[in-house]
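hey so u asked for the seq, here:
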Amino acid sequence: MATEGNKTVVLFEYEGSPNALKTKYHLLFSDIAYYSSTQPDPPPKGIRPDLEAFGVTYRLIPILTIGRDFICDTLLITRIINQTFKPPFVNSKDVLTLRALEDYASKHFIVSVNILTPLPDKFKKLDFLQDRQSLWSWFTLEH
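ran it, structure tokens below
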């Protein structure tokens, strides 16, 4: 069963998401049981039906639920996992070191994944690129 104590843990992710992979590794490394809900990417018509059923319109991935709480930011997910489940490698006396590691991982994990993992074909498709352009003002298709 993918529950910790009395709280069910669900990771909403899509194939190829480096941030979802980071969260998945954190859950596995922390020995936390969880369910996985694979989402379409890009989401159809800009919504994620599984999440919309809960009234959640946030569309970026990953999203982690712990019980009734929805957590939407990868760095925040890391902190909530550490606070809620207290994995054995987390020493509460050394919060500054933990925060420094979180910061380092958030900046360098994606670079490592991009170097070591071939880019999935879906990331090269025009509809995916146009979807990302609609999300981020800094993203442009003119490269």
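The mean pLDDT is 76. The first strand starts at residue 3 and ends at 4.
lmk if thats what u needed
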